[in-house]
Hints:
elongated; two-stranded antiparallel sheet; 15% helix
Amino acid sequence: xxxxxxxxxSVLNRVEISWQWRHVGAPTPTRNEIVAASSNSNLVQRxxxxxxxx
Length: 54
């Protein structure tokens, strides 16, 4: 997992992190794998966005 951007959101009292997960030759990671790799699952709110690069 590569962190691309990290923003402190003082209005909502949280940290917003944009990241990228490269998984060439492997299946798409599950949500559980993503949460396990990121932080305490009780503190993580996920917004999953999928796209493909040409």
